[in-house]
Design a protein that fits this description.
The chain is α/β, with parallel strands linked by helices. The chain has 23 helices and 28 strands. The strands form eight sheets. The chain has a six-stranded mixed beta sheet. A five-stranded parallel beta sheet has the order 4-3-2-1-10.
Length: 763
């Protein structure tokens, strides 16, 4: 039966259903119920082989507009595609190729079921936004949502209808390379951002401007031991529910259509084969109705994990645990039919998985128009639109965090200054694109040099100083770091001597973070620290601009350099955003979404830690308390830290009552004043501490924030509501609930600079 025949069958089904209800004044059939009936109708037509085929996802393979492959893996995939044994493709991009593959699925297979086309559209497709960790530093949910909308519209224009984003893993370890792909260390902020990104990607799925989102990686991936990618995760059930799972639950609450499980094992069980995660929590407690796709090859990776003896057993474990679609393991397409015949997998399990996949295709509108994302004219008109560049410039500026600004060295004067710009990254047009931007072209970012050249009334000199990266390996664009060549130092030192102020752009190359790019040393890579110190000797008036994909440890710079700007990897408009902040055309308002350590030995370090039984000893000479003998416990820069060219002051923290009970609430207010002549934005942050709990509780937890814009010398009363929802947590009763007791509330501009008050909750 061809695609047109399926449409005809479904039309008859709908007409029959309507006819059965024609005597009623109101036909009480929701759109979702109609889709469910359509899905059932399609499944009733499918053979077991065709059902299993829908659970199979293949990577893009050959030039689909060229000759048909004769042999090898590509030939097998092509034959499977014609037989209806493929439900989804990934890494196929461009309308021409997508159309060619969709045409095979729709017009050459027996049932003509359309394909899903997945791609890692993580922070933009062609027009690149800041890396997700940088966007999280904006704390601006509308801007983050807009960034995802831009990414979705460009991706949809090239035929992609499914992104493997957002990554909502919480991570407390800056060594982990995929920190750049998430929202940082906090579950509350992470949950808010997860919602914004899902809403931005998915929006209105009836149009080709929106695509399916995918919450990943379920679950615990960000807690990999030693910050080493793919490593084991061993955490308590309390940490799992209170820290790891909330952002995932947030995506379900806003209707995310797909999930991806993770590479890691969690407490001894690989996530891909983890029934507790996938069936009990996600599909059970949370009633998630979408599909779960494995991560790349993760079904077969249960073999080296030591959890399955071979691919057949891995397929059995994964499907029974709830993993619906197999990404590039070939395990389902090769073994599921035999497993069903042997009684090791029930066909009802296959039916549940295929139902989820078919339903998503209906919700995306592919059965009505399988070529919905295949408009070449629209593709040409959409990529790189001016409004997209305006949008990514906006979020890039909002993502910049001013870490330090002694003696008001910033903003720079717009005229009459001699400025030395130093650092290979300052003239790099590829590194600012960051990792996970596989749809973009190299050499397309605006460099810092180009951005600063747009302010022509200063005398600007540039010197590279030293390369960060000196080449790439063949595999996965891995960078080679310069650890020896200092030949450019002399030129950099010479222009620094003559300058009124030095701007040094240092940090990581854009491909030093991301998947598989964990670092054991998170200082400035290569010879950059030495370059910084040599320049400082001849001119200490330095503005350090950091480009990086993770928190870095730079204690020497923090104690010596007067002005430090955290500029991350900001995407296509990077240089323009940085220049506008440096020259004061944009007043920075970003706040750190991850703690910056003083030293690698502190990692993992995070603000919402537990107190321990010995947080500090009163005896000044005692060593018997939780600390290091060679470093402070405190971070270099705390979660939520970020300065402005404005000067904000907090005062008059007040509670409407010092207690509340069941179904009650307290209002808490604070006065925020801009005590400067510069208009600016401040992220007002509210934290709660639960002093006694059935599980030990963190020293503080973010529970609210508000972006507030104030004119010069303006004051504003900021009010939050504290209710039962705000103080609930996953308790020793193994459920989310508030517990009676004593609490503290903190409000301020960062996690370590707050006003505080006490209150009680009574049951």
């Amino acid at each position: 039966m061809k695609y047109k025949q399926i449409k005809y069958s479904l039309t008859l089904l709908v007409l029959f259903t309507l006819a059965c209800n024609s005597s009623k004044k109101i036909i009480n059939i929701s759109q979702l119920q109609l889709i469910d009936k359509k899905v059932d109708s399609v499944i009733s037509l499918m053979t077991l082989d065709e059902k299993i085929g829908q659970l199979n996802q293949y990577n893009g393979f050959w030039d689909v507009t060229g000759p048909i492959p004769k042999d090898g893996q590509a030939a097998k995939k092509y034959e499977d595609l014609k037989k209806g044994l493929v439900g989804s493709m990934l890494n196929v991009k461009g309308v021409k190729d997508v159309y060619a593959l969709q045409k095979i699925a729709v017009e050459q297979t027996r049932l003509g079921i359309p394909l899903l086309f997945g791609f890692d559209v993580v922070h933009g497709y062609k027009t690149i936004s800041p890396i997700p960790l940088a966007e999280a530093a904006s704390w601006d949910l509308e801007a983050i949502k807009k960034s995802a909308e831009i990414a979705a519209e460009e991706a949809g224009a090239v035929g992609i209808n499914w992104t493997f984003a957002p990554m909502v893993d919480i991570s407390r370890d800056a060594r982990w390379g995929r920190s750049m792909e998430g929202a940082g260390e906090d579950p509350f902020l992470g949950s808010k951002i997860a919602r914004a990104r899902v809403n931005g990607f998915q929006g209105d799925l009836s149009t080709n401007k929106n695509i399916l989102a995918c919450a990943k990686h379920f679950a615990g991936y960000g807690f990999a031991e030693a910050g080493r990618d793919y490593n084991s995760v061993i955490i308590s059930d309390e940490i799992l529910h209170n820290v790891v799972l909330p952002p995932f639950k947030a995506t379900v609450d806003v209707g995310v259509k797909t999930f991806m499980n993770s590479f890691n094992e969690l407490n001894g069980i690989p996530a891909t084969g983890n029934k507790y995660l996938q069936r009990d929590i996600l599909k059970g407690d949370w009633n998630f109705e979408g599909l779960i796709v494995s991560d790349w090859g993760s079904i077969n990776e249960m073999i080296p994990h030591g959890y399955a003896k071979d691919s057949k057993q891995a397929a059995e474990i994964a499907i029974n645990a709830g993993s619906d679609m197999d990404m590039e393991s070939y395990a389902y397409v090769e073994h599921l039919k035999t497993l069903v015949k042997e009684g090791k997998v029930k066909e009802s399990i296959i039916d549940d998985a295929v139902r989820r996949i078919i339903k998503v295709k209906f919700e995306l509108g592919l059965f009505d128009n399988p070529y919905k994302y295949c408009d070449e004219a629209y593709e040409k008109a959409t990529l790189g639109k001016a409004e997209f560049h305006e949008g990514v410039l906006d979020i890039a500026k909002k993502s910049i965090v001013l870490l330090k600004n002694e003696s008001n060295l910033l903003p720079l004067n717009k005229s009459g200054q001699k400025i030395a710009l130093i650092g290979a990254l300052a003239n790099d047009k590829t590194s600012p694109l960051g990792s996970w931007r596989i749809g973009a072209d190299d050499n397309t970012a605006i460099s810092v040099l180009e951005g600063m050249q747009k302010y022509p009334n200063n005398q600007l000199s540039f010197a590279k100083g030293a390369d960060v990266a000196v080449g790439r390996t063949q595999f996965m664009w891995e960078t080679k770091i310069n650890t020896e060549d200092k030949s450019g130092f002399a030129e950099a030192i010479e222009i620094a001597k003559k300058a009124d102020v030095v701007v040094m752009v240092l940090g990581e190359h854009g491909l030093q973070s991301g998947e598989g790019r964990s670092r054991s040393d998170i200082g400035l890579p290569g010879v950059q620290q030495e370059l910084l110190e040599e320049v400082y000797k001849v001119n200490p008036k330095i503005v350090l601009v950091l480009n990086n994909g993770r928190p870095l440890a730079f204690p020497w710079a923090a104690s010596h350099i007067p002005a430090i700007v955290e500029a991350w990897q900001l995407g296509t408009q990077s240089g323009n955003a940085i220049a506008q902040v440096l020259y004061g055309d944009y007043n920075p308002s970003g706040k750190l979404p991850m703690t910056f350590p003083r030293d690698i030995g502190q990692v993992p370090i995070y603000y919402n830690h537990k107190n321990t039984g010995r947080p500090i000893m009163n005896e000044p000479e005692s060593v018997f308390w939780s600390h290091y003998i060679d470093e402070k416990n405190t971070p270099l820069y705390a979660f939520g830290h970020g300065l402005s060219y404005s000067k904000f002051e907090y005062s008059n923290l007040k509670l409407s009552s010092n207690s509340f009970s069941i179904n009650g609430m307290i209002q808490v207010s604070v006065v925020l004043k801009n005590n400067s002549a510069i208009a600016g934005k401040e992220v007002v942050q509210l934290y709660i501490r639960d002093l006694i709990g059935s599980f030990t509780r963190p020293v503080k937890e973010l529970k609210g924030f508000e972006l507030v814009e104030l004119q010069p010398y303006e004051s504003k009363l900021i009010t939050f509501v504290i209710d039962e929802k705000m103080i609930e947590f996953y308790t020793a009763n193994h459920k989310w609930e508030p517990e009676a007791g004593d609490f503290k509330v903190f409000i301020g501009g960062s996690s370590d600079n707050t006003l505080e008050a006490d209150f009680q909750y009574n049951k």
